[in-house]
């Protein structure tokens, strides 16, 4: 079986949705969510359970919970969550995986994992190091790992749609001349699928990773770098509204915007529609998850509250800080650059461009008149 962690958060949810398009895989997937005081499964993942996926609520710090979760598991997709104790969570997951005889772990990390100046990004580096060390300590020749570092995900711009449609302005703590290479969420999911399933039949999960991917570190980026000036021109072309502007803001301004996004009535309306769409999704449409925001930080998101209850504020803090650290990291490293790993892992397919993203979602960014 395949274990996917943090399915109650954006990245884990998207990967599970993508794999669920293959009906025979649904019975081979166990999806982990963070156990809270709430007894019910959050609505954002309840549909997975209805479609035959084994959804388990676990305390990542509780050895007995993890021991049960890893029964009959051969592969794990380790998705790092937004909890303040996420490093410890991942360490416990790695320990439990090795004790339970898991044969391989695919870790989804961050492009800025090597930065020691940014605490939120350094968490990813700590988890990477721990995973490698555990393999060396375990001395299990059959145990394999692959690390995938992700650039900024294009779909994160969903969070700024309300700002653009109301103010005709995109505000980010990103210098005008700094380039980023946003990667599409479905490209990430395609890569993960290609690593863990048979090439000839993606309805079958591999028992072992291909040797050429074992102990490899890949970086997934978009096809080309874009600056803030490029983003505005792409927005203008996609929406056909010429009076779009970009504003360089302080990190604290972006933090304030994201923390208060849940109080925006238009954003709240979108979340409610999305919640309904996720609940009734038949999981056969591979592109449906591309439209979702899910539980990315917002102050008044019912789904988010349902998932995390008392840990809401702390989790939102970590997610927002990761965003801010990324923008500061690219500014100090003179931007991110396209890397061909994604083309190699997608077997020659071209990664989706940021232009495609804004064209696909142009209605969400059109100014209200």
TrEMBL record:
- UniProt domain NAD(P)-binding: residue ranges: 42-154
Name of this protein:
NAD(P)H azoreductase
Highest taxon of the source?
Answer: Eukaryota
PANTHER family xref list: PRESTALK A DIFFERENTIATION PROTEIN A, PTHR43162
Q: Which organism is it from?
A: Choanephora cucurbitarum
The coding gene here is: azoB_1
- What Pfam families does the database record attribute to this sequence? NAD_binding_10 (PF13460)
> Gene3D superfamilies recorded for this chain?
NAD(P)-binding Rossmann-like Domain
What SUPFAM superfamilies has UniProt attached to this entry? NAD(P)-binding Rossmann-fold domains (SSF51735)
